[in-house]
Amino acid sequence: MAVSGNKRALLLINRQARRGQRDLSNAISHLISLNFNLVIESTQNPHHISDIIRRYQDQVELVIVGGGDGTLNAAIEGLVDTQLPLGILPMGTANDLARTLGIPNSLLAACDVINTGRLQPIDLGWVNGKHFFNVASLGLSVGITQKLSKEAKRRWGVFAYAITALQVLFHSVPFSAEIRVKGESLKVKTVQIAVGNGRYYGGGMTVAEDAAIDDQRLDLYSLEIDHWWQMIPLLPAMRSGTQAFWPWVRTIHGQEIEIITRRPYLINTDGEITTTTPAYFRVVAKAITVLVPSH
Predict the structure, then answer these.
(1) pLDDT per residue over 18-68, tens digit each?
(2) Is residue 294 part of a domain?
(3) Distance between CA 230 and CA 226 in Å, rounded?
(4) What DSSP line would sit under 190-246, residue for residue?
């Protein structure tokens, strides 16, 4: 492992995450058995997570986050500011960042990755002053975020995303937007625009077939459908990232992207609504380091 022998780590826990307390207790015991000296902080208010990281930056050499993608997103500004490496205990519903990085879903196996893994620099996305790991999007995904309850995620797990998406899709209305990239301006009528930094989002959907979290680019797709039923045959392609081959899906790559709409549209970043259009996106190359499997 790249950190020093005493392994002083700040463990940030979202105790409202989907994984049970027994799994978490076993993971903490396992980390202690691996000679980690843990400072454990739990918070029910994700807005405090980055402040906690900054508070402990001179006392630890590693931050371990136990939670889902929303908890990780709440930690992102603190990680950027302190440049402390990140270890991940995937305890959420989707765990898309862990999936992108090849971190196992088993908490004990994830602890072993934190203990013996390698440090990998990864890119971050940035929109209107807010960093993100996986995807920022507007349109359908915002409706899904607003409708998807914690109770549904606990009960149905990752299937809650698909169930909620179909409910939102049935009532979706296309909107107009202007996309500016590489000096060009594109006018679109769409139900969703997604801008991805990583590979996976939304419970295992794939941003683009060749997307990677360290490729120093953003991958945009726009769903330009006229009828809700056109999404049904698209779903398998969105799982595999091959939606670019469908005629009503526009795909663009770039390091900087602007999206402009007539009225402000909400944008979610890693499943949390954080900003609105007009939106300026850019990729921040090698912004932080994460412990990933050594192979």
Answers:
(1) 666 778 899 999 999 999 999 999 877 778 999 999 999 999 999 999 999
(2) no
(3) 8
(4) ESEEEEESSSEETTTEES-TT--TTSS-EEEEEE--SSGGGHHHHHHHHHHT-GGGS
How far is the first Cα of the chain from the last one, in angstroms, to the nearest whole number?
13
H or E, element range at 27: helix 21-33
pTM of the model: 0.88
Number of residues written out for the chain? 295
Residue 125 lies in a domain: no
Residue 293 falls inside a structural domain: no
Q: Quick: pLDDT tens for 190-234.
A: 999 999 999 998 888 899 999 999 999 999 999 998 876 677 777
Q: Where is the domain boundary, 61, 81, 116?
A: 116
| Total domains, the chain | 2
CA–CA separation, 279 and 217 (whole Å): 17
Domain that holds residue 159: 130-285
The 8-class DSSP code of residue 47 comes to G
Nearest-10 Cα torsion for 151, 156, 160, 164:
-70
Q: What is the CATH number of the domain that holds 104?
A: 3.40.50.10330
Final residue in a domain of this structure, among 52, 84, 116 = 116
Same structural domain for residues 17 and 137? Answer: no
- Within-domain flag for 124: no
Helix and strand numbers (H, E) in the chain are 9, 18
Yes or no: say if 26 and 107 are a contact pair by the CB < 8 Å rule: yes
Judgement on whether residues 220 and 78 belong to the same structural domain of the protein: no
Residue 105's nearest CA partner among 94, 115, 90, 93 is: 90
